[in-house]
């Protein structure tokens, strides 16, 4: 699938966006804390969305563009993400239904910003519910519950970060694998396809 690469300035440095065109909607996806946009599950979601006619924007946060692996604070992640989405909605995503998503940390950012950015849905790949071995740390479930729009969670059966529960407007699809979601791309693709196809009417 062909696409173009954009650099978008934010208050925390430039973000990089890998944009694949589409006319049915715009799916904006963020990477995990220590990974990039080439993660297998992000590639699968991109391919499936493209087959359905959706445009996809894979967003590299400024800290990754700058060559750092340690993630920025949540407030900076959200601010940079918001700047990118505003720019996309003023350009290639203008007038299209918006779905936000990502894997792990990127899914958290999508949940925290979905309502303020006017998303019609959130796609969470490997949502990091509870840091492994850190029971004293608060659960991230409130972020998931706060998305406020239809949400799909695709979670590995053996994910060390735990299994998010289903809830109002939230579906959870369990696939073979761990937090990396590398094991069963066909199952991930099928889940994303069915959910995304049901979000907006067929043209």
Automatic annotation (TrEMBL):
Signal peptide: none annotated. It comes from the Bacteria. Residues 25-182 form the KANL3/Tex30 alpha/beta hydrolase-like domain. InterPro entries: AB_hydrolase_fold, KANL3/Tex30_Abhydrolase, NSL3/Tex30. This is KANL3/Tex30 alpha/beta hydrolase-like domain-containing protein. It comes from Georgenia satyanarayanai.
